[in-house]
Amino acid sequence: MGKTIAKKSDHVNALKSLIGNQIFIPIAALLLLVIFHLIMDPSFFAIKMGTNSAGNAVLSGYLITILDSGSELAILAIGMTLVTAASGGQDISVGATIAIAGSVILRVLCGTNSRPDSLQAPIIVAFLVACVAGMLCGAFNGILVAKFKIQPMVATLILFTAGRSIAAWINNNELPVISDKTFTYFGEYIPGIPIPTPFFIAMACVLVIALVLKFTNLRLYIQSVGINEGASKLNGLNPAFVKFLSFVILGLCVAVAGLIKVSRISTINYSVIAKDIEMDAILAVALGGNALGGGKFNMTASILGAYVIQCLTTTLYKFNVQSDALPAYKAVVVIALVVFSAPMVKEKAAELGKKIKKNKKAGEVA
Amino acid sequence: MKKKLLAALLVGAMVLGMVGCGSKSSDATAGSAAASTSGDLIKVGIINNDPNESGYRTANDADMKAMFTEENGYEASFAYSLKNDEQITAAQKFIQDGVDYLLLSAADTAGWDSVLKDAQDAGIRVILFDRTIDADESLYEASIVSDMAKEGETAVTWLKDQGLDSINVIHIQGVMGSAAQQGRTGALDDAAAAGDLTIVDQQTAEWNAEKAQQIVQSAIDAGKDFNVIYAENDDMAKGAVAALDKANISHGVGKDVVVMGFDCNAWALEELLNQNWNYDGQCNPFQASYIDEVIKTIQDGGTPEEKVIIMEEKGFDATTITQDDVDKYGI
Fold it and tell me: For a Cys-Cys bond, which of A93, A259, B115, B292 suits A156, CB 3.0-4.6 Å?
């Protein structure tokens, strides 16, 4: 909430320099949504203080819902941006690997009994095992892409197809339910803190990746591999390893998102958990103005893009749009993005701008 | 070189896949091989959907496996697939093996005529369970199914009998067009059209708990006035309840919001037992005893009284449910 307001005033101050900037696209989209809501129903922005059924004071309102539900997407957008930039392709298996990571968490917490009265292992252990599982899935994709030079979308198609069955197999096809209240802290609220925990987890991930990008050469390496693999190899980089690394990082992001997802409902449904989330994650990267063909990237723009998508989803729910029609609305956004970022359209627009200027000048002279 | 590597990799993947699939069918053949040693068992070939599909299917498969055993006088072979053509291939194989009965839960309604004719010519009796098909009735002995519309009616009748001053429903639907969605939605829509209740919000969450949570969250954020959650399966009811908990809206017996689910998962019935939910409608996966009865009738030289046998399905009320119900009917 504070973030959006800050972004807004930034926008007013630095409008001109922003238009040329990559981050302009998600901010413009966000602004459009904000204006739309101000006109339609300003109560969209209301935030109320209430208590939840556990007796904790919590904030509620559409904006909180957006920050809460958008967390997984923001976390995935981080990894997806790196994969896109390094490999020039997208990982479509993130939804299925979330199912795997979530299943692993429940498996470790429940042991062999699918309905335990108490947790069989500390949550942190379950989470770490899930991180390993997520990174292994990422490594599998990464090896196919980096070593065997398979198209990322084709390589990740394997886990996309098989992932949910693997997830079911991990738990012997049972649906574990966790009754321990502490497990819900990750997807809901920690007692005494009125802001949903997923938001903090997402912000922690953002902070970590910001520090990594600032203090290591990861950004430089990924961008140079994405822009020109041959040239970066000649300069002593190992493009295969950089690509592999980006997939492993995405695997880690997936594990974190998986923890939030299973914590939200304390159980899992293999066939529908995080369904179609890969499309939203890719859309977030595109909305962030990043080239889907790889190369330079802007992490802030991707993360902002993720929240814009969640804002769009929440908006559509608010206006009672049938939820199976949601993808159609998102498709419209994708089409608009793709068309506007196409070089041909940009050229034409520039030409048109020049013509208008010329005409104006001509008119003034006459 | 690269192509060779890729080819080797793909071959490896295919082999792995075959081994993966093979392990399941080898279980089945091992079972039938052991059974064929004794003489006068009734041979049944069972074609089902993948047991991984859902909790319903898992319970259904376990029920079949428990009924069609040697002790009960059966020699059973199983085949699983979510694809119609693979199921038809399996049916042809069972016909060649000379089974006495073919039990079928078809993945798709179309395309079964010719293979069922083959079965008829070979003197094999066909019994359908769970799913019906578009084929002539003479091609099968009986069809044992759930009546989804009746499930919906039972639930809506229960709701109307609760004596609420006004009934304002948030209706969370399953995947649009599925039989369960159509049946369970139909009854509620009819009641709304008749003015018995008001539907505040009607949305599909596609059987998905998270989507249901977002839908109910959105209704709460919008300040909508509702006192009933009618979710077409247990998962979605759970998602809805998560949203209610967040907003401190009380739910369950004698509370602000009535929570209704379907499918009778064991964990959902426990929610009923704890009075956190109010109602759960059954979608009966236990068809094996019905099939057993039909086979016994035919073996004794009779014919089943009705072609289409609709299973008895219960609706559980949180105020009357017992631990025994949870153990017996929970899936």
Answer: A93
CB atoms within 10 A of CB A213: 17
**Identity of residue B167:** I
Question: How many other C-beta atoms can be found within 10 angstroms of the C-beta atom of residue B31?
Answer: 18
Same-domain status, B117 and B256: no
B27: Cβ contacts below 8 Å, ≥ 6 apart: none
What's the structural domain count of chain A?
A: 1
Q: Rounded CA gap, B231 and A159, in Å? A: 31
Chosen from B171, B210, B331 to mutate, greatest number of chain A CBs within 10 A? B210
Query: Are residues B273 and B290 located together in one domain of the fold?
Result: no
B257 neighbourhood in chain A, CB within 8 Å = none
Residue B159 domain-assigned? Answer: yes
Instruction: Look up the domain containing B209 and give its range.
Output: 148-283+316-329
| C-alpha to C-alpha distance for A305 and A23, rounded to whole angstroms | 9
Neighboring chain A residues of B248 at a CB cutoff of 8 Å: 50-53
Q: Are residues B192 and B261 in the same domain?
A: yes
B309 assigned to some structural domain: no
| Domain tally, chain B | 2
Position A231, amino acid: A
User: What type of residue is B127?
Assistant: I
CA distance B9 to B26: 25
* CATH code at position B161: 3.40.50.2300
Find out whether B216 and B229 touch, Cβ atoms under 8 Å. yes
* pLDDT 10s digits, A181-236: 899 999 988 988 999 999 999 999 999 999 999 999 999 999 999 999 999 999 99
Cβ contact, residue pair A273, B210, below 8 Å: yes
- The pLDDT tens digits of the residues spanning A73-98 come to 999 999 999 999 999 999 999 999 99
Radius of gyration of chain B (CA): 23
User: How many Cβ pairs within 8 Å bridge chains A and B?
Assistant: 107
| Structural element, H or E, at residue A73 | helix A71-87
Residues B109, B184, single domain; the answer is no
- Do both B241 and B169 map to the same domain? yes
Considering CB atoms only, which of B176, B207, B214 is closest to A317? Answer: B214
Using DSSP's 3-state secondary structure scheme, residue B13 falls into helix
The pTM score is 0.80
- B305 lies in some domain: no
Which residue from B207, B218, B248 is facing A272, i.e. has the nearest CB?
B207
Q: Is the ipTM of this complex over 0.90?
A: no
Chain A CB contacts of B266 below 8 Å: 115
